């Protein structure tokens, strides 16, 4: 005799860094809006945990980048990989959704190839930039790839990967909703004081490489702009480390960890220096003129240069097809070059105007397709794609059990 109780379906989520935690939280909200009975388990950060996920272990343990940086932690990462795989095997969830973090996520999915659970990977691995050969293993790792960038649909599709473009969640980040006046009042900043955003990254392994350069850059910039106010928007995962590192900077920076404060800082800022990645799109959405600064271990940089196949590393430049924002990488990531770029952006209005016009063109490409989002957000589009596969599996399971 059938019973009316609903058996909750379980989705196993994996996010390995701060940006993935944000993606995962938005996805959880969009999925719960469609099916409030869903249960989420797996690995995530504070934003996903605030929505009910109990993380198998702290997400910050996976936030490592670069060959040299990973090597000392291989044993620990291997242990965590075993824990994650064993948890999936024991729980037998209804679906697995891995979010970005390809270094860990692809190893995780490889270990689960023979587990008959639908799998989705959210955020296309940037193999179009390097490691193209890795794409041949993707069809056996997951059932569907959800991409954030429009050109990835054709690129992955031509290589046999089932893919959906769901739009870029930066559009729903709220980065363009800040209040400049509120930020200046909250932190006691004069109306005429120039504000410079400094974004060194969200990973503990990358922050130490940019902070010393930023500090020396500020010493130079202060001579030309005595009233400069540096602002560091940081993930809570690295905030304490950064506070200790900037204690002796020549200009005391304002450190913000709350999302609303970060967006208010964007609204008040005249320019920004940022690492490459999603932060360039956040700043573009907020219309903050920027330069990209990035530095990794020399060995990692040497290997990367031999493999990278794209002309630009900044997402804004990649989508525009030209250098909209300066890229000051590795040898060019020096205090002098960063100070010069910052001064130009803060004092030459025409540079900012040119960048802002290009930002609008780039952001227009990132809207989700109508077929998935139905005038909704990128996370709505991603949730629709996830539920399409989850519901197909549920329907198949129902028919099989009733046969």
UniProtKB/TrEMBL annotation:
Pathway: Bacterial outer membrane biogenesis; LPS lipid A biosynthesis. It is an enzyme of class 2 (transferase). Belongs to the LpxB family. Its EC number is 2.4.1.182. It comes from Asaia krungthepensis NRIC 0535. SUPFAM superfamilies: UDP-Glycosyltransferase/glycogen phosphorylase. Condensation of UDP-2,3-diacylglucosamine and 2,3-diacylglucosamine-1-phosphate to form lipid A disaccharide, a precursor of lipid A, a phosphorylated glycolipid that anchors the lipopolysaccharide to the outer membrane of the cell. Keywords: Glycosyltransferase, Lipid A biosynthesis, Lipid biosynthesis, Lipid metabolism, Transferase. This is Lipid-A-disaccharide synthase.
């Amino acid at each position: 005799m059938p019973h009316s109780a609903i058996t909750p379906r379980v989705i196993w989520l994996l996010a390995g860094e701060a940006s993935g935690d944000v993606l995962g939280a938005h996805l959880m909200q969009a999925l719960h809006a469609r099916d409030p009975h869903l249960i989420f388990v797996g690995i995530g950060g504070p934003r996903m945990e605030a929505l009910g996920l109990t993380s198998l272990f702290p997400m910050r343990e996976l936030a490592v980048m670069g060959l040299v940086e990973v090597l000392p932690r291989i044993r620990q990462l291997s242990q965590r990989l075993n824990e994650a795989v064993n948890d999936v095997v024991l729980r037998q969830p209804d679906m697995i959704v891995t979010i970005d973090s390809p270094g860990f996520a692809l190893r995780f999915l490889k270990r689960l190839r023979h587990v008959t659970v639908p799998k989705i990977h959210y955020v296309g691995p940037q193999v179009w930039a390097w490691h193209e050969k890795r794409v041949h293993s993707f069809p056996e790792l997951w059932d569907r790839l959800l991409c954030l960038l429009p050109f990835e649909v054709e690129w992955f599709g031509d290589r046999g990967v089932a893919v959906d473009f769901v739009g870029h969640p930066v559009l729903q980040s709220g980065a363009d909703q800040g209040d400049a006046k509120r930020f200046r009042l909250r932190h006691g900043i004069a109306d005429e004081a120039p504000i410079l955003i400094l974004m060194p990254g969200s990973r503990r392994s990358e922050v130490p490489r940019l902070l010393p350069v930023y500090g020396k850059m500020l010493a130079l910039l202060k001579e030309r702009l005595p009233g400069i106010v540096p602002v560091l928007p940081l993930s809570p995962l690295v905030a304490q480390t950064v506070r200790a590192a900037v204690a002796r900077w020549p200009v005391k920076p304002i450190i913000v960890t709350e999302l609303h404060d970060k967006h208010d800082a964007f609204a008040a800022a005249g320019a920004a220096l940022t690492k490459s990645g999603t932060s360039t799109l956040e700043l573009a959405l907020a219309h903050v003129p920027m330069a990209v600064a990035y530095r990794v271990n020399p060995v990692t940089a040497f290997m990367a240069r031999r493999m990278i196949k794209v002309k630009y590393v900044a997402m804004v430049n990649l989508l525009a097809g030209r250098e909209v924002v300066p890229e000051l990488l590795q040898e060019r990531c020096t205090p002098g070059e960063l100070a010069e770029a910052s001064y130009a952006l803060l004092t030459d209005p025409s540079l900012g105007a040119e960048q802002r016009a290009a930002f609008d063109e780039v952001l227009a490409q990132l809207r989700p397709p109508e077929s998935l989002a139905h005038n909704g957000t990128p996370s709505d589009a991603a949730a629709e794609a996830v539920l399409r596969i989850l519901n197909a599996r549920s329907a198949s399971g129902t028919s099989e059990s009733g046969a």
